[in-house]
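Lab notebook, bench 4. The sequencing result for the construct came back, and we need a structural model before the next group meeting so we can plan mutations. Quick request posted to the team channel:

Model the 3D structure of this chain.
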Amino acid sequence: MTGPIVNAVVVVVCALAGTFIIRGIPSRIEDLIKKAIGLSIIFVGIKGALENEHILLLIISMVAGAIIGELINIDKWMNKLGLWAERKLGMDKNKTGKSAVEGIQAGEKQPEAGGKAGHSFSKGFVSASIIFCTGSMAIVGSMQSGLQGNHEILFAKTILDGAVSLVFGASFGIGVAFAAIPVLLYEGGIVLASLAIRDYLRPEIIREMSAVGSLIIAAIGFNFLGVKEIKVANLIPAIFIPWLWLALASGF
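Done. Here's the predicted structure in token form:
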């Protein structure tokens, strides 16, 4: 669990630093940094997706995952979790009397950097959680930690997550720090699961799962650029479709 713990701690520290130390970044600089990160995320996502060797499986996984995620409405539940945290911290109302989550669901434009913390709490929590918990580095790194006790990939991911937490903390506030909770649970869960099912984790399955996760990461990059909003959280189930598909295929 060393890798997930270090990753979570760095997210908290960098998010707090962004919130309370460098919050005064001019909005034009912050906006350009976000776009630069968005372009980088798109590149990393597409690069990882290109490792896929079963294009049809990738498409099926994205479509099936989208249907499952939309039926469950993961995005809604994650926003509700953020709203619950807002209320517990007393930061649940903005000047219109609505919470950040209610404003987002109503399609209202949310305040950017420089606004009150409660305005962007849920958006920061949800966005950061999705970025930190999807993609090849989280999956492969956690599996590597569990199967081999090698934390190199998760440590590399930690550096990237720290940089994003710093910028996000300055933009969205303390909500980003709470993303450390799903990071620890998600990565820690994969570490423990990989120990329990190590005999079933063939390299082919890991590669295809990572490719789907990377494509989802690219979608997050488009959200950074202000392109039409994609409910990326509802695509998360797609990551696990290749595992199911290939596991079943190997049995026939």
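Residues 2-249 form one domain.
Will bring this to the meeting.
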